[in-house]
Amino acid sequence: MKKETRTKVIINGEFYDHKITGVQRYASEMIQRLDAIYGENHEKLEMELLMPEDVVNTPVLKNIKIVKYKKRAGWRKIIWLHWNLYRYCKKNDAHCLCLHSFAPVFYSAKSIDLICDCATLAYPEFYSKKTILYFRLFGWNQIKKLERIITISQFSKNELIKYCKLSNDRITVAYASCEHFSRMEADDKIFEKYPILKEKSYCYTLSSLSPNKNLKWVIEVAKRNPEYYFVVSGARFAMFSQQNREVLDNVIYTDYVTDEEARALMEHCKLYLFPTLYEGFGMTPLEALMAGADIVVSDTPCMREIYEGVAEFVNPFQYDYRVEELLHETPEKEKRAIAERYSWRKSAEIIWDLLVDL
Fold first, then answer.
1. pLDDT the model gives residue 276
2. Which residues of the chain have pLDDT under 50?
3. The predicted structure's pLDDT at residue 355
């Protein structure tokens, strides 16, 4: 009897030396869960994680084979993604799974790509011209050629259908989660850097400082609530068109913080603020709920989809809010319930079934 050939899937692992933001978090957590599922179902697929030779942070996987292939540095990152990854997949006649970046431009037809949102299409003014060009060349111009698309909310699926004219059956929703946050121990040493936070009540926000995260709302509300401190964490990136930060006596910018430091700040804050203008999912409010914080999020379709019933909703274009009016206590049972609703394992099983059916 002829042995049945397993479908081969190559996972793009180029991102493992990047700073952890939402997309990298999604990719790394999903690969860990796929590794576990693969260990239970070897007969279904053949999987490899392909990484550049110069990536130092190699993950620990029990079942998926890790392959180091070609070096990548500086501008060579694009070459590795769109040439070396393509060549390796083509040589192995494999499907390419990209959970953090666009698929190789020459291999779109056999690629499954995670696209979190349509932010550069919905709000192009938030991004640099260089970023818009990159997304157009390597993303939006190729999207209809992709074998399948994964996204992280029903809202984002609707946006992809709206902006890219895609059919409903080509897009699979696999939600993000906050389960990883349960592994994090709070690092209270962050308060040694900012001792005033031990004495004063504060509101907290954590995100990349991109314009769609709406730092302006935090600043304007801080002006109207001088008795509270407002702590802002997050890295700034060149891809965004504007990154000016207004200096106020009651606003503290910590820049990038570790997961453990973020957890400590979430555990002790009066409110966690997430006044985003546009989001595909919005993971950090979920992490804040896991840490026991009460959350305030913008009244947008995506935030309603994810956080209905456990958040205070605000108009992201209106600034006349008093912190006392926003204070609320979400029952711990409800916080745990919404945190448990979104599971990395459940989403990995959705992606696994998608791969098996290719």
1. 96
2. 1-3, 237-242
3. 97
Do domains 7-177+343-356 and 183-341 share one topology? The answer is: yes
Distance CA 240, CA 237 (A): 6
From the list 258, 106, 270, 125, the residue with the least C-alpha distance to 186 is 258
Q: Which CATH number is associated with domain 183-341?
A: 3.40.50.2000
Q: Which amino acid is at 173?
A: V
- Fold exhibited by the domain 7-177+343-356: Rossmann fold (3.40.50)
- Report the alpha-carbon distance of residue 155 to residue 139 in Å, rounded: 19
- Global confidence as pTM: 0.91
- Contact between residue 118 and residue 90 where contact means Cβ atoms under 8 Å apart: no
Tell me how far apart the alpha carbons of residues 34 and 353 are, in angstroms, rounded to a whole number.
Answer: 11
pLDDT at 238: 43
The rounded distance, in Å, linking the Cα atoms of 195 and 348 is 41
The two structure tokens encoding residue 315? 């108009």
**DSSP per residue over 19-79, as a string?**
---HHHHHHHHHHHHHHHHHHH-TTTEEEEEEE-TT-------SSSEEEE-S---TTHHHH
Asked whether the beta carbons of 88 and 10 are under 8 A apart, the reply is yes
Rounded-to-integer distance, Cα 294 and Cα 338, Å: 13
Whether the CB-CB separation of 118 and 160 falls below 8 Å is answered with: yes
Rounded-to-integer distance, Cα 2 and Cα 201, Å: 69
Rounded-to-integer distance, Cα 114 and Cα 23, Å: 9
Q: 């600034």: which residue's tokens?
A: 319
User: Tokens in use for 185?
Assistant: 């121990």
The model's pLDDT over 71-96, given as tens digits with 9 standing for 90+, comes to 886 666 788 999 999 999 999 999 99
Q: In 3D, which of 323, 351, 275, 251 has the Cα closest to residue 30?
A: 351
